[in-house]
Design brief:
Blueprint lengths: L3 E4 L5 H12 L3 E3 L11 H9 L7 E4 L14 H29 L2 E6 L12 H21 L4 E8 L5 H6 L2 H10 L8 H12 L10 E4 L7
Parallel strand pairs: 1-2, 1-3, 3-4, 4-5, 5-6
């Protein structure tokens, strides 16, 4: 019997690559648009999940936003929206779907974190905080659901060749970033998706509670 995966933020970048990888492996992919699922609104999340009647075997919490602002210029309306989408939505989705997984005796949850959860730079205070919170939440969820064969992990990508990276960095900055990376290049979304696929697949039988940095060595230098 084929399994079902729910992936948020699957219209582009890492989420799109994850959707393609799971589909390639025969999974039914649920990839709601913002019109179908507004992650910034609790009621929208609850309504969407209540409409899913079939089992969801894998949850990939990928959607995120990253408005950049120094601490003394934080727009708190934007910051609250960032926390709603980057942190509270994954918490809510996990809280709604993990009990179903527990009843099935099977589930895989992969939260997309970021290198900025472990290292940081100016202007990333709110984004880094939201991703550090995801790492902590991942560990606790892994403890609570591990006995039921529900494995919960996080993937922390570094610089990936996505629209968001190109939006937040000039071409000159991207070239400078490449020079800083031990592998000498940005990651491609499909490379991150391969790791997400493994953690979300039946092939992962023991890895849980981990935040895996997939950053080309950026965080170790």
């Amino acid at each position: 019997m084929s399994k079902t995966v729910l992936i948020t933020g699957a219209s582009r970048g890492i989420g799109k690559a994850c959707a393609a990888r799971f589909a390639q492996m025969g999974y039914r992919v649920l990839a709601p648009s913002r019109g179908e699922l507004d992650l910034g609104v609790q009621g929208s999340v609850e309504q969407y999940i209540s409409g899913i009647t079939e089992p969801v075997h894998v949850l990939v919490n990928n959607a995120g936003i990253n408005p950049i602002a120094n601490i003394d210029n934080i727009n708190y309306d934007e910051a609250r929206q960032l926390m709603n989408i980057n942190f509270w939505a994954p918490v809510l989705l996990t809280g709604l779907l993990a009990p179903r997984m527990r009843e099935m005796g099977y589930g895989r949850i992969v939260n997309i974190s970021s290198i900025w959860s472990g290292v940081t730079k100016a202007g990333r205070s709110m984004y880094a905080s939201s991703k550090a919170a995801i790492n902590a939440f991942t560990r606790t969820a892994a403890v609570e659901y591990g006995a039921y064969n529900v494995l919960v992990n996080a993937v922390a990508p570094g610089y990936v060749n996505t629209e968001l990276t190109q939006l937040n960095n000039t071409p000159e900055q991207i070239e400078a970033i490449k020079d800083q990376l031990p592998i000498g290049r940005l990651a491609e979304p499909a490379e991150i998706a391969e790791l997400v696929w493994f953690l979300g697949s039946e092939g992962n039988t023991i890895v849980t509670g981990q935040t895996i940095f997939a950053d080309g060595g950026f965080s170790i230098i």
